[in-house]
Amino acid sequence: MNKIDIGRVKGKKILAIGAHPDDVDFSCGGTLLLLSKQNRIVLACVTSGQMGTHDEDSDKTDLMTVREREQREAGARYKASQVLFLQFPDFFVSEQPKRLRKRLIKLLVRVRPDIVITHDPWSEYFPYHPDHRVVGFAVYDALLASTLPLYLQKKSVAGVALSPRPELWLMHPHEPSHAVDITSVYPKKIAAIKLHKSQFDGVFVWEKVEKRLVKIFSGVGKEIGARQAEAFRIISPEGDAVFSTERKSKRA
Ligand SMILES: [Zn+2]
């Protein structure tokens, strides 16, 4: 696994797309904290996590409002310039594939990111959720489509096609290629996760979750000689082995 020198990623726009509020905080919050120092961050949630409770008396609309607020609060920790909610139905994202692809293409063409971070659709990681897989594949497909002007015309998507294709960082990857040392910001990452108070409802007990997090991120850390690290599989338009953002910065 290659260690990313995150300090060398400068002046980029990062779009982090999660299926639900809290996904990016759990999986890549440390990296977002580090990237936020020299780059612009935009967060997008495909759903607002309306099903994310074990309380059968919970009202879906209320929960949506609460979870969007929690994600905005966490987004402020990364100085996110925008926190966007596509408001697809939680747990049922797979039932609207065409609409999802078009919304994601519009998002990509509007935000024009240099780096897109999202779920690894091939991962069987904890915690499994079908929306993670569906969003991962949809973002992957939308990325290519957003670079094709004739595709945008055919689908009536306004805007200029992306060029070059943004780099894709898949979080919690099945086959990690890179990792970011997040030791210096680990307490801040944990603090951002804890802002999602609605998720620690008695079934998900914080102490148990925290133990699991320590195991995951210290396990990745061992791979690169760090106490805590977050793993990614980076798919670059210039090939998997190259951290193209670094090379582009040097040429600029
Ligand atoms: Zn999720």
From TrEMBL:
<dbReference type="Pfam" id="PF02585">
    <property type="entry name" value="PIG-L"/>
</dbReference>
<dbReference type="InterPro" id="IPR024078">
    <property type="entry name" value="LmbE-like_dom_sf"/>
</dbReference>
<dbReference type="InterPro" id="IPR003737">
    <property type="entry name" value="GlcNAc_PI_deacetylase-related"/>
</dbReference>
<protein>
    <recommendedName>
        <fullName>PIG-L family deacetylase</fullName>
    </recommendedName>
</protein>
<dbReference type="GO" id="GO:0016811">
    <property type="term" value="F:hydrolase activity, acting on carbon-nitrogen (but not peptide) bonds, in linear amides"/>
</dbReference>
